[in-house]
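Tutorial handout. Part one gives the primary structure; part two gives the three-dimensional structure as C-alpha cells.
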Amino acid sequence: MAAYIIFNRLQTTDADELATYAPMVAPTLKDYEATKLAGGGQVKVLEGDRSEAVVILEFPSFEEAETWYNSPLYKNATIQRLKGGKWHVMIVEGV
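Part two.
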C-alpha cells in the first residue's frame, strides 16, 4: 500500500540554509521508488495555521517511506532543512 511523506514548512528561519537543503534531496531519493506529487506551488490554507510550503512524496509502502526518511543521506540533508525553517513532517498510509 502506498504511503506519503508530507513536508509542511510553517516558517522560514534561514533562506540560505533552505537553498543549501533543496539540491541535497534528489540524490537521497535515487535508490527509492519515490515520486514527488506536489511541491513548490501555491499553498492556500483553508483551515488551521499558516503554511509557507508543502511537499508530498509518494512511496510504494510505509516502510519504504520510513526507511528513506531515516537513511543516512537524508538525515544529513535534514540538518540543513531544520536550520532553515520550522516544519511539520509526517508519513501517511494510503487507502
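Part three, for discussion. The first helix runs from residue 15 to 29. The chain has one domain: 3-93.
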